[in-house]
Specification:
The protein has strands spanning about 15-25, 30-45, 55-65, 70-80, 85, 95, 100-110, 115-120, 140-145. By secondary structure, the chain is mainly beta. A hairpin with a 6-residue loop joins β5 and β6.
């Protein structure tokens, strides 16, 4: 994105390569563990510099537990490694720090057609930025109900 013209620009050519690994491991009939790792190398062919906002390393993990047939819970985490970005004031490249955030979810089925669910994002209420100059929400709590026709 070119901040001066407020338009997206296309880099001439880019080269990306990487690896994605996933593991889904049911521990027993109530507990499951999921893990995903991404390794990415993304560079501009014209400058040789890393593409903006593309970390080399990302990791996601989830531990899901079925308390009962009605209640399912999970805790999840996401790690995003350091990555290049642009300073919103000077327009110079900078390195964004890595961050790790946690979340919780719960779903409760009250009947075959009705459920109540909730989620907490950024459980530890951390201050981080995915994109330089654009804040992210503090701890956020979402509640809802669902009905299946």
């Amino acid at each position: 994105f070119d901040s001066l013209s407020s338009r997206y620009i296309n880099t001439a050519l880019a080269h990306t390569e990487g690896l994605e690994l996933g593991l889904r491991a049911p521990v027993d009939n109530r507990l499951a563990f999921n893990l995903t790792y991404n390794y990415l190398i993304a560079k501009s062919d014209s400058t040789g510099l890393p593409l903006l906002r593309r970390p080399n390393h990302q990791l996601s993990a989830e531990l899901a537990y079925s308390v009962s047939d009605q209640l399912q819970t999970a805790i999840s985490g996401r790690y995003v490694g350091d990555r290049d970005d642009v300073d919103v004031v000077t327009f110079k490249r900078l390195r964004m720090p890595p961050f790790t955030i946690l979340g919780l979810t719960a779903n409760y089925k009250t009947s075959d057609k009705f459920k109540v669910f909730g989620r907490i994002d950024n459980l530890l209420d951390l201050t981080y930025e995915e994109v330089n100059g654009f804040g992210t929400p503090k701890r956020s709590i979402y509640l809802g109900v669902g009905y299946t026709l």
